[in-house]
Amino acid sequence: VGNLGLQPYQPRDRILTTFELTEVLTAEGRWWPLMRFCLATGCRIGEALQMTPEQVTGDVWTIPETKNGKPHSLWLTDFAKQQIEAGWPQLCYEMVWKWSNDIGLDWNFHDLRRTAATLMRAANVSVEAVETVLNHSPGRLVQVYQRHDKLPVIKAALLVLENELIKLTVA
Question: Which pTM does this prediction carry?
Answer without folding.
Answer: 0.88
